[in-house]
Description:
Elements: E1 4-10, E2 13-20, E3 26-32, H1 40-51, E4 55-59, H2 70-79, H3 82-98, E5 102-112, H4 114-125, E6 129-135, E7 153-158, H5 166-178, E8 183-188, H6 206-224
Parallel strand pairs: 3-4, 3-5, 5-6, 6-7, 7-8
Antiparallel strand pairs: 1-2, 2-4
Helix pairs in contact: 3-4
Amino acid sequence: MAGHMVEFTANGKTASGYLALPAGKGPGVVVIQEWWGLVDHIKDVCERFAAAGYVALAPDLYHGQTTKSPDEAGKLMMALRIDEAEKELRGAIQYLLAHPSVEPKKVGTIGFCMGGALSLYAACENPQVSACVVFYGGHPNVKPNLEKLQAPVLGIYAERDQFVTPESVRQLEAQLKQLGKTAEIHIYPGADHAFFNDTRPEVYNREAAEDAWRRTLDFFSKYLR
């Protein structure tokens, strides 16, 4: 991978993340991890964004810890302090806005599973976020204040998701529309939770993943470029 770890300031402290740069300049994207941590899959997503012309930064919200165990991942997710995570995401947004390769000075957020919930949360808390993408986002302790949301939202979900059910997605969509927010929601038939993660063959769905990636790039192109 061509990217590298960088440090940035978050609420007076030092945070770290994986940064991938495009060949030239481009908008910024904060890529937010699943409950496994800052694993190679998330770094690869950053590389894919860089190849598409974006400056991508994935904050390390677990501070060096990663796991392949669902039980351990669940413990790490529940131990995550949401207020501290939001400060690190805010720091990542500010880092990108100040980065010389970020042009135009626009930043989007995207997250997967736990990170999807945090993507929406960060967009609600930071008016500098110009576009928000949520991949099957869910976390029992993350309660975004949707009234504060200014960014348009692209929601990517799975029909067979037991963690973030289609019913909960429809409720979110109704809330967003009731508040007059710009939201585009897609629920992929036959797909499972985490269908975008190509390192997990038991749930990866190539057709859905490729379509969702195309929609994501179109969405970011529309609102960030």
